[in-house]
Design brief:
Elements (H helix, E strand, L loop, with lengths): L9 H22 L6 H8 L3 H4 L6 H24 L7 H18 L1 H8 L8 H7 L3 H17 L11 H8 L16 H21 L5 H6 L1 H9 L10 H13 L2
Helix pairs in contact: 1-2, 1-4, 4-5, 4-6, 5-6, 5-8, 5-10, 5-13, 10-12
Length: 253
Amino acid sequence: MGLVRTPATRRERQREATYDEIVSVAAQLLADGEDLSLRAVAGRMGMTAPALYRYVANYQQLIDLVAFELDKAATAEWAAAAERFPAEDPAARLSVACARFRQWALARPREFALIFANPIAEEDTERRELLTVSTSGRYLTDLLWQVWGQTKFPYPRLEELHPTVREAVLDPLIPAESGHIPAEERGILWIYMRAWSALYGVVTLESTGHCDPRVIASGQLFRSTMLDWLGVIGLDDQRERLSAILDEELAAD
């Protein structure tokens, strides 16, 4: 027998609607170039800042809520675009998703900065745990896992890793599914981390304008970074096809 869900109460529905409005208003403030603050969000919602505290206790909670929901919504858009390719073609889906991630970061740099440039103190374990459920990270690393399922690209054995890295992959604090990966095979998480740092690095440079504007406009730094990784993840034999997919995405920017 399946579980019977108890219908949400009117109060619960109202509370969820308020959270949705908080995120929507915050996103509009970012799009308008306004400062994101509890007072600004409350003002646009027609309530006082103290009334908003019933939903978010402080500024950091506001940032975390908005960042999580914006990341979730953006990831849904990339996933929908990638689904023009079948599930049996994770390499193509990954190529599209990464390109759409870049397009989103360039079009919405303040949202990108809010989500991915929001520092987490080493001792802030609660917020670090929140990072591990990042929708975008889990989506992209899951696609990378699916690619591995087809290409069986090599990854380091535990004993080949630096002790700190070994500890990190055995007890990961990254946004990636890992429960299904045996401990002795966790070297693949090091590939996850390196791949994400490469993608995030080039997109951050472009989104913040810390790169030659001509190179940003052409998309060539992003394209080269993506193509450099094909050999690492066992996709060299698909270079021509995946290059064409990337070029199609870049042409649509």
